[in-house]
Specification:
mainly alpha, 2 helices
């Protein structure tokens, strides 16, 4: 993703990249909130006495799949945050060396 640079070069993050990162974070928050709502709904249906018994296992399985998917979103978010932090540290380290 990052272009090859000399160690002495200082890379400024363009405004476009900052706005894209902010948009990604806001969209990811919406996705996580939506998935959390779906997880709660699937748990409710899995435990409900009014849900037919043959469908309870399907609702429980869906809840597990949604939990896994939410975990994957959070992992990708932490990886992206770590990448941004490493870029910031590289930029600060490069500025101190110059």
């Amino acid at each position: 993703m990052r272009a090859a640079m000399d160690k002495d070069e200082v890379r400024e993050v363009p405004e476009v990249e900052k706005s894209i990162n902010a948009w990604r974070q806001s969209e990811r928050k919406v996705m996580i909130d939506t998935i959390q709502d779906l997880i709660q709904m699937s748990h409710k249906y899995a435990k409900s006495q009014y849900t037919p018994s043959n469908q309870r296992s399907r609702w429980a399985k869906l809840g597990g799949q949604l939990i896994w998917y939410k975990d994957q979103i959070l992992k990708s978010f932490s990886l992206e945050a770590m990448t941004i932090e490493m870029q910031d540290l590289d930029r600060v380290g490069g500025a101190e060396r110059a």
